[in-house]
Design brief:
Elements lengths: L1 H28 L7 H10 L14 H28 L1 H26 L4 H28 L2 H19 L8 H15 L6 H8 L2 H28 L5 H43 L4 H11 L5 H17 L2 H27 L7 H35 L23 H6 L1
Length: 421
């Protein structure tokens, strides 16, 4: 026992001797400011390690540019594959997109019926039948007013262009015969192509693709109207938290944008058709009804549609009643377009379609190249929906970071500012 106490006492003495020695070493290592080398080591450890070897080549400016280039190429390849798939699956993609747009347009009617106590299935059927009736009336008007009288309208438009050619030759600047012939051939080819007139409608209605696509659109439209929110909720199941909330915002915004665009465009097109028809009737232009129907249909193609309708009305007026009346028709078309752009569209559509005209033109071109006339009609509402989704990407009123407006602080140029410089 005594031996154990002596050994423990010895160890205690050794520890007491080591403690002052450690304190002396720490004091010796302190710098003038009282900081130890250990703190400096910790500060050095915070600094990120610089890459070495081959990875260092990708950390400089040229390496980062190469990395971004590879990422851009991968993104372009992904978009190219998606576009190729869309062009190969038009029988599915186009009916689904049309069903989505139409469902967004009449979804308020379904919601109203449900709030009134109508069962979901019955409300969907009633809304679908109402849509079919409206589309049937439009098709009947097109068939009765445009298709039957299209040959006469086409001939008058071509004759009006030939008559316009005589006025153009007397202008102070030179226009060659080759340029006039090229424009005339393009106009005749457009008016006589399969994309316009009874031949297009009859040919399309007789194809298997048209019938199959129509039934696909009806079935998809029914389920979009009946179970649209549930379908979107199912698609958002893999996401949680902020990403789930973002998906909810994008879905609600897309439906509002598409529905508002279709309803607003239909109202604007109806007003344009009525106003143009009244103007044409007052001037004395024949075939007012088919021209008014064409104005209504072409109004669904932004920028280009109104111009084409105005040109067609002016050419028919030039042949039927004379050059003065044709100029009056041009003035009427311009006035109607100004009324639409400055008063009607901002009131009816609001913030639904706030796109730069260049963006609209690019979207129209891309849609026409990918899906013809149907693509031209669907391109702009889809582009507007994508832009609105970007506007609510990070919050209800907070766009995605790359789309936020950058505000630079402005310092007024004053004498004290110049003196400081």
């Amino acid at each position: 026992m005594g031996l154990g106490r002596r050994r423990s006492g010895k160890r205690a003495d050794e520890r007491t001797e080591e403690a002052p020695a450690a304190e002396r070493v720490a004091v010796a290592e302190r710098g003038p400011g009282g900081e130890t080398d250990a703190a400096a080591d910790r500060a050095d450890a915070v600094e990120p390690a610089r890459p070495a070897g081959a990875s260092a080549l990708w950390s400089v400016g040229l390496g980062r540019a190469g990395t971004r280039s590879v990422q851009v190429l991968a993104l372009v390849a992904l978009v190219a594959v998606a576009v190729f798939a869309v062009t190969r699956l038009t029988l599915i993609v186009i009916p689904v997109l049309i069903a989505l747009v139409l469902a967004a347009a009449i979804s308020p009617l379904v919601g109203l019926l449900r709030r009134k106590g109508v069962p979901s299935f019955l409300a969907t059927v009633v809304a679908l039948l109402a849509l079919v009736v409206v589309l049937g009336v439009v098709v009947w008007l097109v068939a009765a007013a445009v298709v039957k009288q299209w040959p006469e309208l086409r001939d008058q438009a071509v004759e009006g262009f030939d008559e316009l050619q005589t006025y153009v030759q007397n202008l102070p600047f030179d226009i060659t015969e080759e340029q006039i012939a090229s424009v005339r051939d393009s106009l005749v080819g457009l008016l006589q192509s399969d994309a316009v007139g009874a031949g297009a409608l009859a040919g399309a209605s007789q194809t298997v693709d048209f019938v199959a696509g129509f039934f696909v659109m009806i079935v998809v439209l029914f389920f979009f109207l009946k179970d649209g929110p549930a379908i979107w909720e199912f698609l958002l199941r893999p996401f949680e938290g902020a990403r789930y909330a973002r998906g909810q915002r994008i879905g609600e915004t897309t439906v509002r944008t598409l529905g508002g665009y279709v309803r607003g465009t239909a109202i604007v097109a109806a007003v344009d058709a009525v106003a143009s028809g009244i103007g044409l009737a007052l001037v004395g232009v024949p075939r007012v009804r088919p021209l008014s129907v064409l104005v209504f249909l072409l109004a669904f193609i932004p920028l280009v549609g109104a111009t084409l309708a105005g040109v067609l009305c002016a050419l028919v007026a030039l042949v039927a009643v004379g050059p003065v009346e044709a100029l009056i028709v041009v003035a009427i078309v311009i006035a109607v377009n100004q009324l639409e752009g400055d008063l009607l569209q901002p009131v009816v559509m609001g913030r639904t379609l706030r796109l730069h005209p260049l963006v609209i033109l690019i979207a129209l071109t891309a849609g026409t190249v990918l899906a013809g006339l149907t693509g031209a009609v669907l391109a702009v509402p889809i582009a507007a929906s994508i832009w609105r989704a970007i506007q609510v990407w990070d919050g209800p009123d907070l766009p995605a970071r790359f789309a936020r407006q950058k505000r630079v602080a402005y310092t007024p140029l004053t004498l004290p500012t110049l003196l400081r410089v």
